[in-house]
Amino acid sequence: MRPNDLIGAQDRVSAEGNHNCSSSVQSTPEIEKKYVHRVYDAIAPHFSATRFAKWPKVAEFLNSLRSGSVVLDAGCGNGKYLGFNPDCFFIGCDISPPLIEICAGRGHEVLVADAVNLPYRDNFGDAAISIAVLHHLSTDDRRRKAIEELIRVVRRGGLVLITVWAREQEDKSLLNKWTPLCEKYTEEWVDQSSPPVRSQSASLLESIAETDEDAGVMKQADDRLKKCHDGVEDKTITACSNSNADENEKNQQEYFVPWHLPFHRAEIGGASAAALENGFAKKDEKKGTVVYNRYYHVFVEGELQSSMTNPTGALFSRSFELQGKGWQKEPFEAGIYGNLW
């Protein structure tokens, strides 16, 4: 894909959909557009510059594939795994046009695409990987659909490797550095007519407006969200995160994870300047950074496996913890699946 082809691609792939995919899954929630898509578009060069280490288990998986295998990387980011095994043929896709442009500039075969609507025919690849992607999807249905898409696009007997952020951390202080989506605001944000869902935090996310026409509702939600997750100067975050702390910690799965973009980075101009002006990002003068918040759903033990309980044709094979060099304090949950269709 040429750089000029990337213009508007993100909006197109979010709007287009698989006719077999329900509108609720197909429609990208506003929280993902704002706190995933927009953030990665804004930080793409800096993100890419910090993402080069390969996790050993992912490398082991890729190196185990047969020569000539077609490998599909869904949510390829800066493409650090594309071409990792020189005996395989890799195709990458990501929702972020700036990240795809970085991949294309390195000579990789890539395109802009949505994880819940992969642009490949059934049984196209021999293997697929989804590395640190599913936790950016904000509903159970969308996460499940993304898994089903990965299974759909690999051949019978093919393999899929999935990694996600796990709530069970060896270093318990890690999650304390993140900002939970506060239960305090759930009642205001949740549509009372909605059917019961897994958790209050999931209800909160699913209630956020999904169309640009609902901008007024989104602005009100954003104002409340800022009070909940804004920086050190805003004391409301203390009350928000400390109230019923023990109970919240047990059930909390929805977080904002900060990304610190140094003042000296070129990205500080343009999009970041606008983000600061409209309150989408904030300055941390002490660290000399512009801070963006990224949405994360952290998975509880067994949640990834349970996503395969519906008849997708996949068989859960095994799970393991990813703790490669430099990641000892940030374990992921991972699973390898095989396509039985």
UniProtKB/TrEMBL annotation:
Output one GO BP term. tRNA methylation
List the record's Gene Ontology CC terms alphabetically.
cytoplasm; nucleus
* Any one Gene Ontology molecular-function term assigned to this protein's record: tRNA (5-carboxymethyluridine(34)-5-O)-methyltransferase activity
Among Gene3D superfamilies, the record links this protein to:
Vaccinia Virus protein VP39 (3.40.50.150)
The lineage's top-level taxon is Eukaryota
Q: Which UniProt keywords apply?
A: Methyltransferase, Transferase
User: Which residue ranges does the record assign to the Methyltransferase type domain?
Assistant: 72-162
PANTHER family in the cross-refs: ALKYLATED DNA REPAIR PROTEIN ALKB HOMOLOG 8 (PTHR13069:SF21)
Question: What is the name listed in the Swiss-Prot or TrEMBL entry for this protein?
Answer: Methyltransferase type 11 domain-containing protein
Which organism is this protein's natural source? Answer: Panicum miliaceum
